[in-house]
Amino acid sequence: MSSRGRKKASVCQKLQQLRSVTNSTAVNKTSIVVDASRYIEELKVKVDKLNQEIGTSQISTSQNPLPMQVTVETLEKGFLINVLLEKNCPGLLVSILETFEELGLDVLDARVSCEDNFHLEAIGGENQGNSEGMDAQMVKQAVLQAIRKWSENSSQEG
To answer: What is the separation, in whole angstroms, between the first and last Cα of the chain?
Structure first.
């Protein structure tokens, strides 16, 4: 096989790999490349969205030296909320419970530990009167905001 033939075969093989990776159904080279560029743009958007979520769920240490983890999962009727901070946080539970009340979430079950660190695991169900499309991201942002406000207030007092 000539050098030119090997190059053409190599290009065809790489186009087929690109086609399969991007789930393209295109047949010609141009369409495969266009589909691949669209796929790359979609991936960039997903990466940006994930980076934003990471940025909002982990408050930067310059703003708040509290290492924390906040997760919210959607349940059949409500949410499972987990909050973990690596230090004892007097008053934080009250701030989070006030946020639940503002959101219209009833605490159906909860476990809290405030000894060496702060750990809250709560199941919140939506009030009957407040069932207008609340989602896990909305609850998570509200809890993060409550932690920020608590942190600002406690650092001003100290």
So the answer is: 79
